[in-house]
Every structure is written in structure tokens, then in C-alpha cells.
Amino acid sequence: MPEFLLVSCCAPCSCAVIEKLAREKKDFAVLFYNPNIQPAEEYEKRRKENERFCQERNVPFVSLEYDPENWRQAVNGLENEPERGKRCSVCFYFRLKRAMEYAKENGFAAVSSVLGVSRYKDMAQVNRAAKKASEETGVPYDETNWRKGGLEQRRQQLIKETGMYAQDYCGCPFSVRKN
Ligand code: SF4
Known about the structure:
It contains 6 helices and 4 strands, in the order βαβαβααβαα. It is α/β, with parallel strands linked by helices. α2 links the parallel β2 and β3 (about 60-65). The termini are far apart.
């Protein structure tokens, strides 16, 4: 049984963690389930960049369905919420629950994620959404803080060194931030 499934939103947020786990020869796979990313061209760009990074390190990469309509329904009525607000809680929960369902169906022992890695994110908010999804699916969630242990610095370094595609907004049409 694989040790765990790492949920990734994009290559810039996951690169340092993937590199570390691959070097430590951990038994893990990366899961890309991000119907929040729109438009579809942007989604594909991020997916391919994340896949390329994994392939270069022989890390299994799984991408699930792209279903922005279902995601849109889940956040209906929360369009005007700010980033870190209620819409983001629903968004994290929506993605993590699907990831945990996949983990359960495919024999992974636990799930972790880099959804809270960016300095624009509230890690406690991600952990709360994960806890709810975990209670509902029965799949354990590993709350490791993937910003620590030099990973934030390494992430920035990798983005520069590899010329990685790094987007300037979170993903959904309602996120106005430009990094
Ligand atoms: S800002 Fe980001 S985390 Fe929040 S709802 Fe939009 S895509 Fe999801």
C-alpha cells in the first residue's frame, strides 16, 4: 500500500516537497485535482508543469477529472467572498474530499496537501477543511507544515532555477490577487 497521496495545486507550491520526498525515497504519489483553476487553458498549463516536474523525478502523478461546473455549484453564492474567506473553505473541502475518496479507492494510507503552502493561504483554514473531509471519508490527513525546514526557500529557488511556470493568481475567476 503506498504511504500517502500528496494533493497539489500547482508545481510552484509542490516542487520543494516533491523533491524532498523523492530524495527520501518515500512511497507516495502526487494528485492533481483542481477544477477551481479557470480558464481551461490555464488549468492545462499548470497541470502539465506539475506533471513534468514529477516525471523528471520519477514520481507518480495522477490527475483526476476536470469538472469546473461541479466546483462552480459548490461555491455558488460565495463569489464575493475575499481570498481566505468562506469560498476558499468550500474550495479546499471540495478538492480534498475528492482526493480522499480517490485515496480510499486506491489503497493510500493517508493524504497530505500543499494547498496551504503559499504565503497567501491560511494553513489552519486548509487543515479545518481537511479535517471535515477526513471525518467524512475515514482517510487520515497528515497536517505537516510543508513551509518549514527550509522548504519555502527551496521552493523559491526551484521556481527561479528551473524557469518553472508560476501563475499570478490563485485559480478561480473570483481570485483577484496578482502575486
Ligand atoms: S481564491 Fe483560490 S482557494 Fe479561494 S476559492 Fe478561489 S481558487 Fe479556491
